[in-house]
Amino acid sequence: MHTLIVIDQPPYGSWGGRESLDMAFSLAAFDQPVSLLFIDAGVLWLKQGQEPGGINQKSVERNLAAASIFGVESLLADTAACHRFGLNEDNLINGVTRIDNTGATLQQYQHVAFSG
Amino acid sequence: MPADNHTFTLVITGAPYSSQAPETALGFAQAALRAGHTIDRVFLYGDGVHLASSLPSPPSDEINWTRAWSDFLQEHSVPAVACIASALRRGLVNESEQRRYQLPASNLATPFEIAGLGEWVESTIKSSAQSSRVIYFHGGA
Hints:
- Chain A is of the alpha/beta class and 116 residues long.
- Chain A contains four helices and five strands; from the N terminus they run E-H-E-H-E-H-E-H-E.
- In chain A, helix 2 links the parallel strand 2 and strand 3.
- Chain A starts with a strand and ends with a strand.
- Chain B is of the alpha/beta class.
- The A-B interface holds A 1, 3, 8-9, 15-16, 19, 22-23, 26-27, 30, 32, 110-111, 113-114, 116 and B 11, 13-14, 45-48, 85-86, 89, 116-118, 120-121, 124-125, 127-128, 134, 136, 138-139, 141.
- Chain B: It is found in: Cytoplasm.
């Protein structure tokens, strides 16, 4: 059963997204198919060159870059949200698939979990 | 048991007193059992782990959500697990974690337990069965 974890919060304002990422990695560690979908301000997770040292946090960029190595099948991002936040092929991290119809994407997964 | 019996895992990510998630989840759990369904387990994640703290002491005319959940879990023998990573970050520990991290106290309420995300993974694997579902109760953004 393929799980889709949806992240709709920006990376550093709360721990919710980070804990959603842990859920995805945990599924992958147990060999369960899992993908991540970033919508709304959640797409900011996918921006290149994050430097959150000034707020004493670790960059999530490295975690996401390692997602495929840990077995996360795909990183999906809502195209409209990417556009709204000025994200394009030049400043998105590698390996992101942009999708136009999030509703249809949600339908493709048997188990969908939003970040708290 | 009705023929259309379902098994539910409840995931609570909203904290009591900051969100309605524990209350809504308890209402769902009670209604599900009344209708002949089964609650496989309850998993507390993120801020939801605060529900398993034995320390909140609300005014006497407000509901103590930890106690309400604790009574429900014990009456119906439903296991409840708080995610260890979420719990340690937020200061929810049992006696063994208290010893491990040399903390001055432990505060895990009975009958809650502390375990890893593997518990949740197991629930999602089980939920691939037609009659089984994982339901999330969030605190809202």
